[in-house]
Amino acid sequence: MKNTYPLIFLLFIISCGKDKAVQLPEINHSTISEIQDISAAYLFYDESNPDNIELNRKNLISSTNWLVNVDKRLTLKQVFPQVKFLQNKKQNSEHKRENAKNYFTCNDTSKKTLGFIEFTDLVYHEESSETYMTKITEFKNKQNIKPISFNLDGEISIINPNSEPFIIMTNKNELLDHLKKLDTTQTTIYLNFNEQLSFQEYITYKSILLKSDFKHLKISNQEFLHN
To answer: How is 30-42 classified by DSSP, letter by letter?
Structure first.
């Protein structure tokens, strides 16, 4: 089935009319390039009404690996609720298979083929990690927590409670260098994304972090939106 998927994707988009399109996000390297036993969902960007979002999930089969095709122009505020809906749908299905996973589909520009980023175990919160932490007792020891905020205009802030400066400002080109300097203790990183970031920007940041080779730092499976 993996060999026929790109053709099926192209035909589906053409059949949807001129005002609907899925432009997949681009990555320059993917560690996952082949998936079998799949079914697909599509989150469309409406060129005539950019504030609108349409989810097509008619062909999803709960026992398969899900490929979720998200248009890179959509904002995270539009995408996160739909992704959460799909996760819940699969989790609550009577026909789900234990080892079936969920992936975002991307264009791998280095291989000129499709690449995939898994999000099976991610938990999405429509609030910042700081707000969330005030509600949960497990976050009492904040010394072992470092929130990272991905803001508009390419700005990234790392909150580092145990040193000066308290907030480290960086960008995508220098992010891993800063994180490697913090890679000295058992610390968990919590990712916060501005809700107006595009899905392309989200995938770009995710792909950078997937290249990391931390010895001590752990990236939480919980991700947060902020405005």
So the answer is: -S-----SEEEEE
